[in-house]
Amino acid sequence: MDKNLIKSYFKGCLTIPNLLSVIRIALIPVFAWLFLNNEKLIAVVILFISGLTDLFDGKIARRFNQISELGKMLDPLADKLTQIAIAIIMLIVFLGSENATIRAAGWVFLVFLIKEALFIVGAVIMIALGIKPGAAEIYGKVATFVFYGVMIFILLFGPEVGVFCEYFVIPDILTVILIAISAICTLIAFAGYIPAVCTQVKERFSKK
């Protein structure tokens, strides 16, 4: 492992955007605990706050020139850990449903889990090889935005999980369609990363 690469991650790392990323990571177990203990509304508020920090940390970093190598790693890591937590909770709840349509939709969350697991393992391997993982491409940003939007909407009004399902519940088929759209965006984003990763790996080993 390249020691200089590791040191570069901690150069100028004490910034507000990085603090916001750390807060987002810290909010993950809080969200999960609240949701699993049936404090769904507070859990959704926590998730919304997490999404806001994700929105503002990048803007602050660019506005006040607080972009750092650690931030480039922490920001997507916080996204991926949050998405993994949401996907696991949804998978558990949906697979436990008596509704066959909802149970079928639950398996789609494996797409998110597998994709994020591959991303994290791949990033660890790249760092070990002395390669800096690239920043999120536009497809990744769109996929993340769609994921948060769909999941918050389902957590508010979705069958089985919706905070306000006593007043309004979106149809089962619409729930499936929304989850499928998010999964498709995720797969497109994953495919979009592959060429850049291959180029980085090729350049890294061509220097030897």
Short structural summary:
By secondary structure, the protein is mainly α. The chain has eight helices and no strands. It has one domain: Four Helix Bundle (Hemerythrin (Met), subunit A) (Up-down Bundle).
Structural class: mainly alpha
Order of helices and strands: HHHHHHHH
Portion in strands: under 5%
* Share of helix, binned: over 70%
User: Radius of gyration from the CA trace?
Assistant: 18 Å
Mean pLDDT: 83
CATH class: Mainly Alpha
Terminal CA distance reads: 15 Å
At the fourth CATH level, what is the homologous superfamily?
Answer: CDP-alcohol phosphotransferase transmembrane (TM) domain
Report low-confidence residues grouped into runs of 5 or more.
none
Q: Quote the CATH topology.
A: Four Helix Bundle (Hemerythrin (Met), subunit A)
Beta strand count: 0
Q: Using the alpha-carbon principal axes, give the shape.
A: globular
Total helical segments: 8
CATH A-level architecture: Up-down Bundle
Summarize the main sheet. Answer: none
Number of separate domains? 1
Q: How would you characterize this protein structure?
A:
By secondary structure, the chain is mainly alpha-helical. It has a single domain (3-206), classed as CDP-alcohol phosphotransferase transmembrane (TM) domain (Four Helix Bundle (Hemerythrin (Met), subunit A), Up-down Bundle). Helices cover 77% and strands 0% of the residues. The chain has eight helices and no strands. It has helices spanning 3-9, 16-36, 40-63, 69-95, 100-106, 109-128, 138-157, 172-206. The mean pLDDT is 83.
